[in-house]
Specification:
single chain; mainly alpha; 222 residues; globular; 12 helices
């Protein structure tokens, strides 16, 4: 009997220890707290203690606090937050946090297989805003591994996603881009999308002409 009681007490204490260990101590519990941390980092970007507090808030805070903390980490381009951006970009249940995590990866210019995988997943996210932010970052990265995902987004039913995909393609040097843009320019029923396509086509033509002109000038100088 005594043995059973001892076992029950031990189990109860163990469960309390597990709870206390899993409930992380979030020092930045309110958005105002995160704003104060942001002000500290504006004065001293290398304040490791404050950065760790913001990281903790990004991982364990409430929905709004997580979003604000991720935004701050992206703003200061904190390399230490890279793994948190990777995780939050696909795992966080709040679309706003996922958006900001994707933008954070873009600001870190994390052009590697892990980051590219997250951007691909963002482009195919269930939330349209996450898709759009993923496409913006894909355009900045200009990574060939992301090209197919962007091209696929040209067939989205949402015009804002199609427009973001068109914008993302403007600096990709691939014949498929020109073919896809010309085709969409003649088939898309939305005026805003067609207008964006024409602007990007014009931009690509001017860029190509400028490069050719530079090559000629270089050759002439030699």
């Amino acid at each position: 009997m005594k043995k059973n009681i001892i076992l029950l007490i031990f189990a109860a204490v163990s469960s309390l220890l597990i709870i206390s260990c899993s409930a992380k101590d979030v020092t930045l519990r309110r958005i105002e707290d995160v704003h104060k941390a942001e002000q500290k980092l504006a004065k001293n970007p290398g304040d490791e203690e404050t950065i760790l507090e913001v990281l903790n808030a990004a991982q364990n805070g409430g929905r709004e606090v997580r979003a604000e903390a991720i935004w701050v980490l992206g703003k200061i381009e904190a390399d230490i937050a890279y793994s948190d951006f990777l995780r939050a970009s696909v795992e966080d249940p709040d679309f706003n946090v996922r958006c900001l995590a994707v933008l954070g990866l873009g600001k870190l210019d994390a052009n590697n297989p892990e980051a590219i995988d997250r951007i691909k997943r963002a482009i195919s996210d269930t939330d349209l805003q996450v898709q759009i932010e993923g496409l913006k970052v894909a355009g900045q990265m200009n990574a060939k591994a992301l090209l197919n995902s962007i091209l696929d987004s040209l067939s989205s039913k949402n015009k804002w996603v199609r427009m973001a995909a068109v914008e993302a393609l403007k600096d990709y040097d691939d014949a498929r881009v020109d073919r896809s843009l010309n085709l969409l320019a003649s088939t898309d029923k939305d005026y805003a999308v067609r207008s964006t396509i024409n602007q990007v086509i014009e931009y690509r033509k001017n860029k190509k002409n400028a490069v050719e002109e530079e090559v000629k000038e270089t050759a002439a100088a030699e």
